[in-house]
Amino acid sequence: MAVDVRWATTGDAAALAVMLCEMAVHYRQPPLDSERALAAAQKWLGEESLAYPHFALAFVDGEVAGLASVAIAHPGIDLERLLFLKDLFVRDHARNAGVGRALIGFLARHCLSEGIGRIDLTTEDWNEGALRFYERLGAERHGQKVFLRLSGKALETAAKP
User: Fold this and answer.
1) Collapsing DSSP states into helix, strand and coil, what is residue 58?
2) Alpha helix positions (H), the chain
3) Separation CA 5–CA 99 (nearest Å)
4) pLDDT digits (tens, 9 = 90+) for 4-41
5) Which of 20, 81, 93, 106 has the highest Cβ tally under 10 A?
6) Which 8-state DSSP code applies to residue 84?
7) Which three-class secondary structure state does DSSP give residue 115?
């Protein structure tokens, strides 16, 4: 199966919206309204700068099959940028067909060509398939960091002066 991976452009908003809707269900979230997802995809692909998350899309026979949502973080103490892989998602019918591997390969080549030193990522502890996939790629669990989140009330509290 030939997999074509490229950075999403404004013309890919509908494909990105499809992926966002399917991803919400897969990650056990309430279904997204497709019109809202399309509006968000159009905004993200059309209005936001390169500092915001990027989307790589994988296509098989012209149909969207996978998504990688990434952000580039600028140097920390090691003076090396990193690519943070926020989400990697492959549609059910395209799983185990090389789509995820093609997306990771695309991102890795981008990192090497742009002088980006690493890819950091997270996955849910219940997502055994993703954990096996990343381990097969050579990813190691990194015990020096703890993943934390500010959202909802905590985000509102943090915003107060």
Assistant:
1) strand
2) 13-26, 34-46, 99-114, 128-136, 152-159
3) 9
4) 999 999 999 999 999 999 999 998 899 999 999 999 99
5) 20
6) E
7) coil
